[in-house]
């Protein structure tokens, strides 16, 4: 599935009310490790069908970053049933990211 | 099992330079980019001392250019994580994901990772106010006070960068002096948003369960313990070599892979090393690139001698 580019407007319906777990990548264009992770997240999205993968550009969506207390990027949050069930930061391999996500299937 | 002439582990300046040279030599290298594709320079902003860029260049852009240059000559670069290497028999075996690869030669350029303090609260608040990447996370500390631990070039550069966002930056230095170069010291001292605390160590990271609220610090001369109320703690105390996979297989010293003087040869014939994983002294992008070139040339010569 393609990666969703989430905004304040789409966040509620695409993430909080999603029927599947949602992995959200908080990122910014000026952040090196985010650039490092961006193709990894894209590749993961190609791989998984049991979860939704989304990205939030914190430059464009500072409100969402603030709402979820993002103090580091890239930060990954996994939402399930409208709740944050896991949160972690920093670059990692696709396998590690996938493993972390699959715990919540 | 797929068979290769040479496999390169790592995608910093050392790994990519080795890839450029071995690819141009027709060896069709397979490069495992590793968990931090592009290496430490992906964490930086502007690189001012890499030759050939008189106006400076952004770290991530420099790494992207090196990658493209390697790919142009036929290097195959993959992002699969290497699980293990077996150097006990030849050809060497590299296991990654569900696949295993045989290789005649191996170039190790796995680099180094940021060192952490190892104090109470640090792990809990990573990404919630504790950071090892000022350029990534400084943005979130607008209008807040922060501390940065370290006294080297990187710490001072990051402190100066953080003043763009933070109200105040306190630099905590363990000893009596800074290790940073003169110009960086002068730049930091001239910045009214920066203060220095010497003989100071962090004892504990304090928080409210959601984010960092302060640090408990100790003066090593007076033994006095006090608290600083801050929203962020940045750690810039150097790097440790990524050698976990090679312990017991290659000769190491102080955690670094040992290379024969003036070469890139390791204790195992056919295994070559380049970059910060074997360099406890210089640790520059350009020295890593230089070592990457040496490893590629040593590797090429060794492969030719095996035929």
From TrEMBL, chain A:
InterPro entries: Thioredoxin (IPR005746), Thioredoxin-like_sf (IPR036249), Thioredoxin_CS (IPR017937), Thioredoxin_domain (IPR013766). One of its GO terms (molecular function) is protein-disulfide reductase activity. It comes from the Bacteria. The record marks 32-33 as: Contributes to redox potential value. Disulfide bonds join 31-34. GO terms for cellular component: cytoplasm. The record marks 25 as: Deprotonates C-terminal active site Cys. NCBIfam families: thioredoxin. This is Thioredoxin. It comes from Candidatus Uhrbacteria bacterium GW2011_GWF2_46_218.
Automatic annotation (TrEMBL), chain B:
It catalyses: [thioredoxin]-dithiol + NADP(+) = [thioredoxin]-disulfide + NADPH + H(+). Its EC number is 1.8.1.9. Binds 1 FAD per subunit. GO terms for cellular component: cytoplasm. SUPFAM superfamilies: FAD/NAD(P)-binding domain. PROSITE patterns: PYRIDINE_REDOX_2. Transmembrane segments: none annotated. Keywords: Disulfide bond, FAD, Flavoprotein, NADP, Oxidoreductase, Redox-active center. GO terms for biological process: removal of superoxide radicals. It comes from the Bacteria. NCBIfam families: TRX_reduct (TIGR01292). Homodimer. Belongs to the class-II pyridine nucleotide-disulfide oxidoreductase family. This is Thioredoxin reductase.
């Amino acid at each position: 599935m393609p990666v969703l580019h989430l905004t304040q407007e789409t966040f509620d319906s695409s993430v909080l009310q999603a029927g599947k777990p949602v992995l959200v990548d908080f990122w910014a264009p000026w952040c090196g490790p985010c650039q490092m992770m961006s193709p990894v997240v894209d590749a993961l999205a190609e791989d998984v069908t049991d979860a939704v993968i989304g990205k939030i550009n914190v430059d464009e969506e500072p409100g969402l970053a603030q709402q979820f207390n993002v103090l580091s990027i890239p930060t990954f949050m996994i939402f399930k049933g409208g709740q944050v069930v896991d949160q972690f930061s920093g670059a990692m391999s696709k396998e590690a990211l996938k493993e972390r996500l699959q715990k919540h299937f | 099992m797929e068979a290769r002439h040479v496999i390169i582990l790592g995608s910093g300046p050392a790994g990519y330079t080795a890839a450029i040279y071995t690819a141009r030599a027709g060896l069709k290298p397979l490069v495992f980019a590793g968990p931090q594709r592009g290496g430490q320079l992906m964490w930086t902003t502007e690189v001012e001392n890499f030759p050939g860029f008189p106006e400076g260049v952004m770290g991530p852009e420099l790494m992207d250019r090196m990658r493209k240059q390697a790919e142009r000559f036929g290097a195959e670069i993959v992002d699969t994580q290497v699980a293990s290497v077996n150097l006990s028999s030849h050809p060497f075996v590299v296991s990654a994901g569900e696949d295993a690869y045989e290789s005649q030669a191996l170039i190790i350029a796995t680099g180094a990772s940021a060192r952490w303090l190892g104090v109470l609260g640090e792990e809990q608040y990573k990404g919630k106010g504790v950071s090892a990447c000022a350029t990534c996370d400084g943005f979130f500390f607008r209008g807040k006070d922060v501390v940065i631990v370290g006294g080297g070039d990187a710490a001072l550069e990051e402190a100066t960068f953080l003043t763009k966002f933070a109200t105040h930056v306190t630099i905590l230095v363990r000893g009596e002096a800074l290790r940073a170069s003169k110009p960086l010291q002068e730049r930091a001292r001239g910045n009214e948003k920066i203060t220095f605390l010497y003989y100071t160590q962090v004892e504990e990271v304090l928080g409210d369960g959601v984010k960092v609220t302060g640090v408990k610090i100790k003066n090593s001369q007076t033994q006095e313990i006090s608290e600083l109320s801050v929203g962020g703690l940045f750690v810039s105390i150097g790097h440790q070599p990524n050698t976990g996979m090679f312990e017991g297989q290659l000769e190491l010293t102080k955690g670094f892979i040992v290379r024969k003087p003036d070469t890139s040869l390791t204790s195992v014939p056919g295994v070559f090393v380049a970059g910060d994983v074997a360099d406890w002294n210089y640790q520059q992008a350009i020295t890593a690139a230089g070592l990457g070139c040496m490893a590629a040339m040593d590797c090429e010569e060794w492969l030719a001698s095996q035929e």
